[in-house]
Amino acid sequence: MSAFKYIFQILLALNYVCTVFSNEKIVIVGAGASGIATATKLLENGFNNIIILEAECRIGGRIHTVSLNGTSVDLGAEWCDGQKGNVVYDKLEELDLLNMLRHEHFPVQFYSSSRSNISYEFSKELTNVFKMVHDGIEESTDSLGDVFQKRYNQQISELYKTKPEKFHIAQQANNYWAHLLLRTSGSSSWHALASKDPDYQNKAGHSPGWKYGYISFLDALMKKYPDTAHQLPIDDKIHLNKEVIKITYTDDSAPVTILCSDKSMYTAKHVVVTSSLGVLKQKVESLFEPKLDENKIKAIKNIGFGSVVKVFVTFNEKWWGNLPGFNFIWTDEDRAASSSKFQRGPRNQKGESWIVDIFYVFAIPDSNILLCYFTGEMVTLLETMDELILKDGLHYTFNLFLGHFYDIPKPLILIRSNWKSNPHFYGTNSFPSLVSTREDRRNLGIPILNFKEELVIQFAGEATSVNHYSSVQGAIESGYRAADKLIKLYKKT
Ligand SMILES: Cc1cc2nc3c(=O)[nH]c(=O)nc-3n(C[C@H](O)[C@H](O)[C@H](O)COP(=O)(O)OP(=O)(O)OC[C@H]3O[C@@H](n4cnc5c(N)ncnc54)[C@H](O)[C@@H]3O)c2cc1C
Ligand SMILES: *[C@@H]1O[C@H](CO)[C@@H](O)[C@H](O)[C@H]1NC(C)=O
Ligand SMILES: *[C@@H]1O[C@H](CO)[C@@H](O)[C@H](O)[C@H]1NC(C)=O
């Protein structure tokens, strides 16, 4: 340990003696954004008796930056969603980690599988129609898919009454909009999505990307960046490859016991659980002893949890030049013909090839890398299907849409996410379902107290955020909420 770090730790320990009169053990389950946020806030406030148990062999959770042919790419969270009132942004303004240019780097231009020309102006116009319709949607008992389609079809019938060609393209674009809404929600169908959640606070301002990947934000939280000499003493508190399988608590002041799959056991006065809603849905029955109360179980069942797949492919050259990417509109005829034209790989319920789910292609700036998002019913199959078929299908589809404009080489390296298949996540994010209510997220975030009204178990994580769920911001805020409750408890006494 460097002398500086040693002195820093002593200072921290002194701080602990001065401000917090407790050294009770705190166990945090999960080293994702919310777990790291809880731990860093506690450390900054003098709590030192902390253990973070993480099931994966790495920290970060749904923040997962990897290197691909020399470029940092994110298999999980990618954008710093909104600047205004965003703790993520506020923490970083001076650190120069964000790439402000990336918010402009969204593909605008639409391409049709029939290769009919769609002008740049009409592409922009379509996007504006989408925005207008989407922004005007109100709360309803009908699904987002139903409400959107009804309003959108009405809108384009009026707008393009005398322009049948435009009307036709706008109509075929319905599939694109469905995919786009699934990309942000993670739901497998827009008919399973609530039309609008009045509690959700929209992102304000730009959504920049990261220069070195989202993981740099966690480094900043842990104060490893910009100068490792100032880092919080967190490394030795994180225990990797520790999957918690049972949390046993009582109604009296006895410590909570935490059992891991490798049979190691921990005890703690306080526990903060940050596992994804997907994990809670799958494991809630076996994870807690005694069982959670009815309101929590109901919340865990009701709130939606879904998944997208991110697939990155590298090329020997940047054949798309400086374009930010491509939007694909499949015509009904080409969708129907897809499985006879490209026969390999899974098919959807309508018998169409998986390639019809290729609709959104992003160019990663300053690289030879393209990113495709897959959403919908075939997510699990796409996470596990043969890599060669995936590469060939992408190449086939890029050619179908763009082959008359570009000479497209075969992709070289392919990497993809597997959030849905990974039992430490079971998906990418939570969403408002047709049955979830605003009370559900609140109930999930309510701590479990013992008979003395002492904090025993708290729940944090993206899904417990009422206003910013499904984002890193929501995860961080929920982690701070859990830490603040503990700080308040011990400052008081
Ligand atoms: C593909 C994708 C794209 C996204 N894009 C964006 C974006 O652009 N902008 C944005 O703001 N957000 C985005 N998000 C959402 C954002 O990543 C999440 O909301 C946030 O990272 C969740 O953090 P968390 O701490 O709540 O959960 P997690 O990151 O899931 O952390 C929980 C941790 O607990 C661990 N764990 C689970 N079960 C156990 C157990 N039993 N024992 C021990 N450890 C366990 C997990 O391994 C994990 O590390 C995206 C997510 C994905 C997956
Ligand atoms: C589409 O546009 C390109 C130029 O952008 C032009 O060369 C081509 O002829 C057009 N095709 C059709 C079918 O209009
Ligand atoms: C990596 O990128 C370089 C250009 O920076 C490119 O020439 C090379 O073909 C790429 N390699 C792979 C395997 O993608």
Automatic annotation (TrEMBL):
Question: MF terms per GO, please?
Answer: polyamine oxidase activity
Q: Hey, what's the signal peptide range on this chain? A: 1-22
- Write out the entry's keywords from A to Z: Signal
Q: Where is the Amine oxidase domain?
A: 34-487
Q: Which Pfam families match?
A: Amino_oxidase
Gene3D superfamilies hit by this protein: 3.90.660.10, FAD/NAD(P)-binding domain (3.50.50.60)
Q: Which PANTHER family match?
A: AMINE OXIDASE DOMAIN-CONTAINING PROTEIN-RELATED, FLAVIN MONOAMINE OXIDASE
Protein name, UniProt field: Amine oxidase domain-containing protein
Q: What phylogenetic lineage does the species belong to?
A: Eukaryota, Metazoa, Ecdysozoa, Arthropoda, Hexapoda
